[in-house]
């Protein structure tokens, strides 16, 4: 397995993985390939995009979509999406993607990594295992219309 920078031509394979990860009873999403591609392309086109894929042979097995986020005291990387194909989860691939982001952060002298995730899914345990902590001072809010 190798980790490399994400390219535009990787979006389709990443959209397939995103659909396979989130279209289930746990996440209860209904992604279509077309919407997933548009969603990921939107992140890719961000001016300060940071993205990586894990690849085995010619097959992409995981993706990470993030961007640099300017902040008053030091910019950070905000992870928008990270996913590993379901049959390869739990094998260190997500951790390898995060390590690549950490290298990027260190080389660009950024503050760190931020993200949001569903607290009822297995993801928080994965992130805690990788050194993330819950920020009690941050409240994620939404308004549906």
Task: Report on the architecture of this protein.
The chain is α+β, with helices and mostly antiparallel strands. The chain has one domain: Gcn5-related N-acetyltransferase (GNAT) (Aminopeptidase, 3-Layer(aba) Sandwich). Helix content is 32%, strand content 24%. A hairpin with a 2-residue loop joins strand 2 (49-56) and strand 3.
Summarize the structure.
By secondary structure, the chain is an alpha+beta fold. The chain has 4 helices and 5 strands.
Report the uncertain regions. none
CATH architecture: 3-Layer(aba) Sandwich
The CATH homologous superfamily is called: Gcn5-related N-acetyltransferase (GNAT)
Largest sheet: 5 strands, mixed
What is the molecular shape? globular
Strand order of the largest sheet: 1-2-3-4-5
Secondary-structure class: alpha+beta
Q: Give me the number of helical elements.
A: 4
Could you tell me the CATH topology label: Aminopeptidase
Rg over CA atoms, rounded to whole Å, is 15 Å
State the helical fraction: 25-40%
What's the domain count? 1
């Amino acid at each position: 397995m190798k980790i490399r920078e994400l390219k535009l031509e990787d979006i389709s394979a990443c959209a397939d993985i995103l659909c396979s990860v989130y279209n289930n009873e746990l996440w209860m999403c209904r992604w279509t390939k077309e919407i997933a591609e548009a969603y990921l392309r939107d992140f890719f086109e961000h001016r300060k995009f940071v993205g990586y894929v894990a690849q085995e042979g010619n097959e992409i097995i995981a993706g990470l979509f993030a961007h640099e986020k300017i902040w008053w005291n030091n910019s950070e990387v905000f992870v928008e999406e990270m996913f590993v194909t379901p049959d390869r989860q739990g094998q260190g691939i997500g951790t390898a993607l995060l390590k690549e982001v950490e290298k990027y952060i260190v080389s660009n002298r950024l503050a760190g990594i931020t993200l949001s995730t569903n607290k009822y899914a297995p993801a928080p345990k994965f992130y805690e295992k990788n050194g993330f902590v819950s920020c009690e001072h941050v409240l994620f809010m939404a308004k549906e219309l």
